Amino acid sequence: MAGHSKWANTKYRKERQDKKRSSAFGKLIKEITIQARNGDPNPEHNPGLAQALERAKAANLPKDNIDRALKRAAGELEGMAYEEITYEGYANDGVAVLIRSVTDNKNRAAADIRHIFSKNGGSMASVGSVSWLFDRKGMVLISELPDGIDHDDLEFALIEAGAEEISNQDGMIEATCAPADLPALIKVVKDRGITPDRAEATMIPKSTVHVEGAAAEKVLKIVNLLDEHEDVQEVFANFDIDDEFFEKLEAEGES
Predict the structure, then answer these.
(1) Virtual torsion, Cα 174, 196, 241, 10, nearest 10 deg
(2) Are 174 and 141 within 8 A, CB to CB?
(3) In whole angstroms, what separates CA 166 from the centre of its chain?
(4) pTM
(5) How far is CA 182 from the centre of its chain?
(6) Residue 178 sits in the same domain as residue 164
(7) 51 versus 166: which is more confidently predicted?
(8) N or C: which end of the chain has fewer CB within 10 A?
């Protein structure tokens, strides 16, 4: 599994465990609002909104908060006017970083993101200089199959639904597809009674930069600081860090 996928999976597990963190709730509310505003308000016809609602449910975001976000998107309630902006940059060792921001103040967001890069050995980049290194893909991740589910049957069904690549490492199944085929893959999984750990449109790097030791720590510091910022919804990077490095970090965090 690529380093960025490992980082993202760890982040989502933490998000589910840290249910009371107000910043996580705030980001989920922003995501629901902008996905509903920019697409069909019916999640059955809007994969982005469906994914946002799934993550909100997993994080135990109160239903009242979800309903208010949907009403704001529909113009039934007053609220912040959010903009969706993509920023690009480089972390240490030439690792490419792509940031999706949803903010009510683009000047503040740009200044803060630039500060995070410059203070930690990275740099902002011009539009298009990083984004070409990534492909937009749908991804479904399953960490554990329920009893009675045949792996070969599931893999064949995913391929029939449009999966382009399927990997299975240590029992964790990751299927990628064209974004338009993501709802079909999700249906395959849910029809078999499986709740995916992640099911979303994401950015997959075309190539990766291997970093380790102190360099890996510096890259993760920038990525984590960006991810924790209130105006940042998603961070994508093309780093490749060995699983053992993440396992060590997780063990240190639990001790």
Answers:
(1) -170
(2) yes
(3) 18
(4) 0.78
(5) 14
(6) yes
(7) 166
(8) C
pLDDT per residue over 108-141, tens digit each? 999 999 999 999 999 999 999 999 999 999 999 8
Torsion of CA 46, 51, 61, 246, to 10 degrees: -160
Residues 211 and 190 grouped into a single domain: no
- Tell me: do 212 and 115 sit in the same domain: yes
Angle at 238 between CA 237 and CA 241, to 5 degrees: 105
Range of the domain at 215: 83-133+206-239
**CA-CA distance, 176 to 185, in Å (whole number)?**
9
Q: Per the domain annotation, does 248 fall within a domain?
A: no
Structure tokens at 122: 């990275």
pLDDT at 15: 55
In a shared domain, residues 145 and 192: yes
Separation of alpha carbons 112 and 48, rounded Å: 26
Tokens 């249906």 identify what position?
187
